[in-house]
Amino acid sequence: MKKILKWSGIILAVLAGILLVALAAAYFQTQSRFTRAYQTPNDVVAIPTDAESIALGKRIFQYRGCEACHGEKLEGKVYLDNPAVGLVISGNLTKGAGGIGREMSDADWVRGIRYGIRPDKTPMLFMPSTEFYFMSDADLGAVIAYIKSMPAVDNTMPRSSVSLMGRVVMTLVPQITFIPAELIPMSTARPAAPEVGITPEYGEYLTGSCKVCHGLTMSGGAIPGFPSDWPPAPNITFGGGSALPTWSEADFINTIRTGKTPMKKELRSQYMPWGSYKYMSDDELKAVWVYLKSLPKLDYGNR
Ligand code: HEC
Ligand code: HEC
Question: CB of 267 closer than 6 A to ligand 2?
């Protein structure tokens, strides 16, 4: 009996040792990814200063979801504090205490938003630049003009960080990274943005973020990598199981503006961020509608 106990003790100690080595490996593997210096293209983007561009920049800041994360005053906030992922803190973008506004050059803003890279060349965590990489120079310039025009807010917070569990996930699952810069091609030319208009191409340009939840094909289903208590995303192509074939264009616009569908279903804004998308203009929502209509009609769940 004593012998068995002794042996199981040794086995446990060996297993604990292996676990510690694995955790240390995950820690150092991710640490080198967090501190890597990135070489970004030197994009030159004109930053306007007129009131009309600033107003446009505000609207883009709203419908692209920046405001939902960074706050109405751009003061930043603790967006998520979850031991499985870490601490997601969206930065204070103003010139106030704890804000980055005073130090950022125009090139720093472009590099930060478009490529997810800080002025010291290290990558940001969690900031979804993968979606903003496609934004045109004109849209990005207007957004930066708006950020620069905003009054200072004092709000000092710690930096975002990935928890040990998050680091283990990043090490073990190649598809999951909390460093958006790792997913952004830095050495090939950016695709040109389409012309503004009520076209499927422009609609596609406006809907990059929808695909995170509704799937690359927009046919919906359970959202991979999201907490299990999240509802699945509905099919928003015109295929099987989709509500959209019975809607008119006006119904669609009304749904995104009010969060209420023609079937009187209330869309929960904590899952479906219509509170951001409602700032799209009528023409922008019409472009999204013609884009959804143009998609292959897939049955639900073929994401
Ligand atoms: C899902 C939430 C989310 C959205 C949407 C989002 N951000 Fe961020 N943003 C973050 C987080 C988190 C960070 C902090 C990154 C870090 O600390 O590594 C950040 C950092 C930044 C920074 C650098 C701040 C700093 O302290 O270094 C800028 C600039 C920025 N975001 C601008 C934008 C703009 C402009 C948009 C919209 C086009 C946007 N963000 C949309 C979450 C978000
Ligand atoms: C963060 C995840 C997420 C994003 C991003 C997102 N959606 Fe959704 N969407 C959902 C979920 C979840 C529902 C179901 C909500 C509910 O039942 O309360 C939904 C519902 C909808 C509906 C209602 C469908 C129906 O059958 O009632 C439409 C239309 C829709 N989304 C369109 C869009 C469009 C267009 C975009 C991008 C501009 C978008 N969504 C972005 C998650 C998302």
Answer: yes
